[in-house]
Design a protein that fits this description.
about 750 residues, about 35% helix, 33 strands, alpha+beta, 6-stranded antiparallel beta barrel, flat
Length: about 750
């Protein structure tokens, strides 16, 4: 009951009793003096016993006329602004979200509550005319815009969803919990979970059952898309730097050339280190990035592999460099890989220098080497050309200083500059998985400065730079242009040659990386061609092919790519090579389980095997082969492919015999023969030829010379022959004896 009505009731009682006791003024004057009387009755110093006053008013017979005279007074008081919040309770629940039984239960409860509230509200306010209050409560719903309410309810009853229709998404649209939707589906004999999808017809029936109108979100022909897709924009290319912002940067110099011509040894002589001694077989098999300081100048060196399998790595080294130093051995001269390195450098449009190494060897022939280089278009300065050629010896330290001077001179002529300010952008040189560090990537910064904490994007991988490590293994806080560093913090190992970018935040980098990963996955998941009548026999023949399955794990991603490329060059129509997995990192237990499931052999290249992986390999019977030199790896794989092939059976003719007469014995007939050529051998194979057509092929069961068994009968002699279960010998039949020999097949 509102406070105003209670106040009106309490003030009306003393006022009415006072007028009855006096019996002086008429009804009109008592109405005018009712407010002063009420105020005087509630004086602060006066005590009014309310309960006693109420008892006296009930006993007097004039109480009813007093209430009638007080009714017009109550109409003056402002009762209309005060209203019970009952209309809000009627609008709150959505009827369309409830089943029919639940709705009937709620309606019955509302009626019961309304029936009990009405007498309770009228009893205390009997003296204060409840009619205006009821009119105010009844008028409250009329103040709401009925058209807007109906439109809102109509909109609430329409469910629009785009396929696929997931159960939990439909529940969110209907305003219910997923388990409630599952309960209704179970009543329809449909059993599903919250993450499964529904058919359109099932979702429509369910919505109608719950009182909704179901609609599928579709795009009309030519009407455009329903929702504009979020455009993921690739990071823009850096704007041309202002000349005032450019600063000199160190040159990036790449050593290229044939295998074992001394590239790494020459770099060791410059760095005063021993890298070549740690290489397997003395052969570089991944790109190494180093920084050398000479006085006030800094030079960045890249050492690329010389083996022919690492073509892609040499091309990446040429693309990120400023100067290519072509290392040629003075005793070997130009080799095929040397010519390939020259072509890569020319394609990248970089300056070429030549370092003729091993001049201290007795077989060194500088004139021949320079002549071969001239045939490739590299003319020495002493012959009137523009190519700088330096004669050096990495082991003796001859000509190293002159080579460095010429490098710095060439870099000064090129005027290499870059803007060290702004977000970094560069290239991934190498990537790998390191124990305790996870995915790491060796990167070469080209523009800007890379700092710890930057959000980085490299191909389909992203992350926040946790640490930067230089070539000496020291942690650094930033890396400027032309400085190689190892990056920690990526969520995967990007492919060498990928460009990396620094973005504003990690969220933007994640979105771009996921978009790139989706595109790569869609490219790999393209549906293979289905079997048709035209290619049915080809499909059957393919199933009969032998397949060698391999799982390749390497120390760095670039080496793994080179191994995969070399293995794919092995051509064979008799056996297929299937590479199940190729990644960088140590051999783990998951690799062993994958090999067990797919029947593959695990090959490790310059990597280790975890203890758990070794135990799992013994338990599952999976073979692990570890290599450190790529030559041995390729030879072993070829031998394994040949070993999988079934040996080829070839016939070796032994001799021929002519049937002269057939002897019928008690159990079986025997052919009396005369050996014409070669020899007839017991337990060999033979075929019967009649009129130039073979009619039987089987083993020689019996071979006798007179009464004795013979192991073989040579030409010019007579013998008795019985072949397997063949009994239809005729005179003049020819018996050809041969032997089957197994020969190893070739790829």
């Amino acid at each position: 009951m509102p406070k105003e009505e209670k106040a009106a009731a309490t003030t009306a009682a003393p006022r009415s009793t006072k007028k009855v006791a006096g019996k002086a003024a008429p009804a009109e004057k008592s109405a005018e003096k009712s407010r002063p009387a009420a105020k005087s009755a509630k004086a602060p110093g006066e005590k009014v016993p309310h309960k006693k006053t109420e008892e006296t008013t009930v006993e007097e017979p004039i109480v009813t006329p007093v209430i009638e005279t007080a009714a017009p007074v109550e109409a003056v008081e402002p009762v209309e602004p005060v209203a019970e919040p009952e209309p809000v309770r009627k609008i709150a629940p959505k009827r369309s979200l409830l089943t029919a039984s639940e709705q009937r239960h709620i309606d019955n409860m509302e009626k019961a509550v309304a029936g009990t509230d009405a007498p309770a509200a009228a009893a205390p306010a009997a003296a204060s005319s409840p009619a205006p209050a009821k009119e105010a409560v009844a008028a409250a719903p009329a103040g709401i815009d009925e058209a807007a309410l109906a439109a809102q309810q109509l909109r609430d009853k329409i469910v629009v969803i785009k396929p696929p229709i997931i159960v939990k998404d439909l529940a969110a649209k209907l305003g219910l919990k997923p388990y409630q939707i599952i309960h209704h589906l179970m009543e329809m004999n449909i059993f599903t979970s919250a993450n499964q999808s529904l058919e359109e017809e099932v979702a429509r029936k369910l919505s109608i059952k719950l009182g909704f109108t179901f609609e599928i979100e579709k795009r009309e022909k030519g009407a455009g898309q329903v929702h504009a897709p979020v455009k993921i924009v690739e990071p823009p290319k850096p704007a041309p730097a202002v000349a005032s912002e450019l600063q000199p940067r160190p040159p990036v110099i790449t050593f290229m050339g044939h295998v074992d011509h001394g590239k790494t040894s020459l770099l060791d002589a410059i760095r005063k280190a021993r890298v070549a001694s740690g290489e397997a077989g003395g052969i570089t098999q991944h790109i190494g990035a180093y920084t050398v300081k000479r006085g006030t100048h800094t030079i960045t060196f890249l050492d690329t592999p010389g083996h022919e399998a690492f073509t892609a790595m040499r091309s990446r080294g040429a693309n990120v460099t400023d100067i290519v130093v072509l290392v040629v051995a003075a005793d070997d001269g130009i080799m095929p890989t040397t010519i390939e390195a020259i072509n890569h450098a020319r394609a990248a449009k970089v300056q070429i220098m030549v370092a003729i190494n091993k001049i201290d060897l007795p077989g060194a022939n500088l004139v021949r080497v320079k002549g071969q280089l001239q045939e490739q278009g590299l003319v020495a300065e002493e012959y009137g050309g523009e190519t700088i050629m330096c004669e050096v010896s990495a082991t003796k330290g001859i000509g190293i200083e002159k080579l460095l001077e010429m490098m710095l001179l060439q870099a000064e002529i090129l005027e290499l500059k870059a803007n060290p300010h702004g977000p970094a952008r560069g290239s991934i040189i190498e990537s790998q998985f390191e124990q305790g560090r996870g995915p790491t990537a060796t990167a070469l910064v080209r523009h800007g400065t890379l700092t710890v904490g930057d959000a980085i994007l490299a191909g389909p991988f992203y992350g926040r730079v946790k640490a930067l490590i230089n070539d000496l293994g020291q942690n650094v806080k930033e890396a400027g242009p032309s400085i190689p560093v190892k990056i920690l913090g990526l969520n995967g190992a990007p492919s060498p040659g990928e460009e990396f970018n620094v973005l504003k935040n990690e969220r933007e980098a994640r979105e771009l990386a996921e978009d790139r990963a989706d595109k790569l996955r869609l490219g790999k998941l393209e549906a293979p061609p289905r079997v048709t009548l035209e290619n049915l026999f080809e499909a059957i023949a393919d199933e009969q092919h032998k397949v060698l399955k391999l799982i390749i794990k390497g120390d760095v991603q670039g080496s793994v790519e080179a191994i995969v490329a070399s293995l794919k060059k092995i051509e064979s129509k008799k056996i297929d090579l299937d590479i199940v997995l190729a990644s960088a990192g140590a051999i783990s237990e998951s690799d062993i389980l994958l090999a067990k499931a797919s029947g593959a052999v695990v090959i490790g290249f310059n990597t280790k095997t975890d203890n758990s992986a070794a135990n799992a390999a013994k338990r599952e019977g999976v073979q692990i082969k570890l290599f450190s030199i790529i030559y041995e790896l390729l030879d072993q794989v070829k031998e394994a492919m040949v070993g999988l092939l079934d040996p080829e059976l070839r016939e070796t003719p032994l001799g021929t015999a002519v049937v002269k007469q057939v002897f019928q014995l008690s159990k079986f007939p025997v052919a009396g023969c005369s050996v014409q050529s070669g020899r007839i051998v017991r337990n060999a194979r033979a075929r019967v030829v009649r009129r130039r057509q073979p009619i039987y092929d089987g083993a020689v069961a019996t071979l006798k010379r007179f009464q004795d068994d013979a192991s073989e009968v040579r030409a010019g002699l007579e013998c008795g022959i019985r072949l397997g279960d063949f009994n239809e010998y005729l005179p003049d039949d020819i018996i050809e004896c041969y032997q089957l020999e197994k020969f190893t097949q070739t790829l």
